[in-house]
Amino acid sequence: MTQSAEATATAPAPAPPSGRLGPRRALIGIPILLVAVSVEVAVVSIFDPNLKALGAKLALQALLAITLAGVAFFLAGDDGRLAAPARLGLRRPPASAFGYALVGLVIYFTFAVVYGSFVGPHQKDITRSLGYGRGAGVSIVVGILIVAAAPMSEEIFFRGFLFGGLRRRLPFIAAGVISAAIFGAFHYTGAGSLSLLPQLAALGLVQAWIYERSGSIVPTIAVHMLNNALAFALITS
C-alpha cells in the first residue's frame, strides 16, 4: 500500500482548530454561555415571571440549543466571522467512524449499567416538565428538542468547540477529562441530579474519544441522539 493510500485509509484525528481558537477561548466560552442563557431567562421572565407556562419552558429549551451552537460558531471564528462547520468537527466522517461509535456505545452502556447498579442515579423527567403528553403537537416538539436539537447543539459546543479548543494545546486525556467534567456539570439541575453527573461525564469522555479517533462529531451526534432517544422512550413509556 502506498503512503497516500495509507493516509486515506486511516481516520484523521480532530484537526487542530485554526485561527485563534485554543484552550483560553474555549474556556471563555463557558461564562459567555452562562451569561447569554441568563439574559434569555430574564427576557422570558418578563412575560412569565415564574417560568411555569408551557410556552416559556419550550422557548427556553429551544433558545438553549440555539445559544450553544451560536456561541461555538461565533467564538471559533476569526475577526467576527462565524467559524466554518468543519472547524467544529462537522465534516464527513470516515467509514471507520461508526465502528468507533459502536465501541464507544458499548463502553458507555457497560459503565452506565455497572454504575447504576451501585449508585442508582436519579433521572429527572424533563419530558413531562416540557409538556410531553399535553397533545400530539407538543409531544412532537418535546421529542425533537430532546432527541435532535439537544444532541446536535451540545456536541457542537462540548465536543467541537470545547474539547476541540482544549485539544489544540493539551493532551487528549486532559482535554477529554476537562470537557467531560464540564459537560456533566452542565446537566446539574439540583441536588437530586448529583448522582447522574458522573455518568454523563463518562459519556462526555467517550464522546471525546470518538471524536479524537474519527475526526468528526457526526458519529458523536448519532451516539448522543441514540442515548437521548432511549432515555426518552424509557421515561415516557
Topology record:
Blueprint: H1 3-9, H2 23-47, H3 54-76, H4 97-119, H5 126-129, H6 136-167, H7 172-186, H8 197-214, H9 218-236
User: How large, in whole angstroms, is the Cα Rg?
Assistant: 18 Å
The portion of residues forming beta strands comes to under 5%
Distance between the termini: 52 Å
| Number of H/I helices | 9
Global morphology: globular
The profile of the biggest β sheet is:
none
Elements, N to C (H/E): HHHHHHHHH
**Category by helix and strand content:** mainly alpha
| Oligomer classification | single chain
Unreliable spans are 1-12
Strand tally is 0
Task: Provide a brief overview of the structure.
With about 240 residues, the chain is an all-alpha fold.
